[in-house]
Amino acid sequence: MSMQSLWIAGAALAGLSLLFQLETLPSRYLLTTLALAHAGAAALIWRGLPHWHFRRPFACGLGLVFVALCFMLWGAIVSSDRLSNRLDPSDDGSVHVVVIQVEDLPQRVGHERLPPSWKFQARLIEGPRPGARANFTWSSSGGNEIPEDLLPGQRFELSARLRNAAGTRNFYGFDAETWMFSKSILLSGSVQNGRGYRPSRERPPGHDLGSLIDLLRAHIRSVILATLAEAPHAGVMSGLVIGDQQGIPRESWSLFSRTGVSHLVSISGMHVTLFAVLARWLVTQIWRLASRPPLRLALYVPLPVAAAVGASLAAFAYALLAGFNIPAQRTAVMVSVAALSSLTGLRASSWGILSCTLLAILALDPT
User: Fold this and answer.
1) What's the pLDDT score for residue 112?
2) Which of 155, 119, 123, 153 is nearest to 138 (CA)?
3) Exposure on the CB side of residue 321, measured as CA atoms within 13 A
4) Cβ-based neighbour number of residue 263 at 10 Å
5) How far apart are CA 294 and CA 286, in angstroms?
6) CB–CB of 308/302 below 8 Å?
7) Using CA atoms, how far apart are residues 333 and 346, in angstroms rounded to an integer?
8) Is 161 in contact with 137 (CB distance < 8 Å)?
9) pLDDT digit string (tens) for 249-273?
10) d(Cα 356, Cα 146) in Å, to the nearest integer?
11) Band of the pLDDT at 315, cuts 50, 70, 90?
12) What was the pLDDT predicted at 338?
């Protein structure tokens, strides 16, 4: 089973790697036709060749090509949908009246030379590209009024100058455009709230799951910063707890880089794994106590099942609290695959767990 999943995951990765080497995205209809043709050819070979030793390699090879084409098709669909959120050249830089919903963790910036402003991510509810995500700047310069506090889920009707997002491309370091594309951020906007523009107006907030999670993260950050207001490493603590690295000063990053511990500040697989292990231990202790008379919960749900489910839920909960970045996603899926294999009695090797995790990550976000 592990070798089969490894070959399938390799085919999916190869298909997406080939897709993003192309200068332009291929037609989804062409990819669909090719995938169906390979599936049909594999079925015909499976039924047509008389001996197992002849038909197995041909059918398996065509099956792997079919998997690669399916993931190429999925990657092309997701990428084209994201690119469709870009503005037409004639609208690039124009001012639009939009309704936005604040997402992620807004950051208030400003010092002696620059006026106070907000930098945040938002989703367009109404506007030229509904559903698109954008990086916004809301500055108090030029007579603009900015909110005292900005929370995830808040909605505003305002005038904003929208542009197609652009950034530096760096093949040997941080690539801003690639990062924004992976986060589905295709636009940037600056709020125009001064004289001559429609004043901003707050709308009823959104209550979707993502906003509620971001609101919880914002509350935890505010508690940490209020408690450690005078501490020099308050931003580091916020980064370790909820994955918010915006408050870490540049001097601290330089120190972490010199000492080789930068990867420990970002919430990675190690943090999620430790949290899942602690959750498993805690669920085990609670379940043992609850399995005594009169509850006897172990008669209904065995202890290994409760511990595995508790560890998986804890891993996903902490990954969501940390912003659900790629390292956290990967570890949460790996914990769940390992728990599922132990519950079903399947013997999953480390390669099997890694390949299933790779397939899940590529299916969640093929870009």
Assistant:
1) 65
2) 119
3) 18
4) 10
5) 14
6) no
7) 17
8) no
9) 888 888 888 888 777 777 778 889 9
10) 47
11) very high
12) 86
Q: In this structure, are residues 239 and 172 in contact, taking their beta carbons and an 8 Å threshold?
A: no
For residue range 36-83, list pLDDT tens digits in order. 887 887 777 767 666 656 667 777 787 888 899 999 999 999 999 999
pLDDT per residue as tens digits for the range 162-185: 999 887 776 777 788 888 888 889
pLDDT digits (tens, 9 = 90+) for 172-219: 777 888 888 888 899 999 998 776 777 788 888 888 888 999 999 999
φ/ψ of 313, rounded to 5, equals: -65, -40
Q: How many residues does the chain have?
A: 367
Over the chain, what HEC string results? CHHHHHHHHHHHHHHHHHHCCCCCCCCHHHHHHHHHHHHHHHHHHHHHCCCHHHHHHHHHHHHHHHHHHHHHHHHHHHHHHHHCCCCCCCCCCCEEEEEEEEEEEEEEECCCCCCCEEEEEEEEEECCCCCCEEEEEEECHHHCCCCCCCCCCCEEEEEEEEEECCCCCCCCCCCHHHHHHHCCEEEEEEECCCCCCCCCEEECCCCCHHHHHHHHHHHHHHHHHHHCCCCCCHHHHHHHHHCCCCCCCHHHHHHHHHHCCHHHHCCCHHHHHHHHHHHHHHHHHHHHHHCCCCCCHHHCCCHHHHHHHHHHHHHHHHHHHCCCCHHHHHHHHHHHHHHHHHHHCCCCCHHHHHHHHHHHHHHHCCC
Cβ contacts of 259 within 8 Å, gap of 6 or more = none
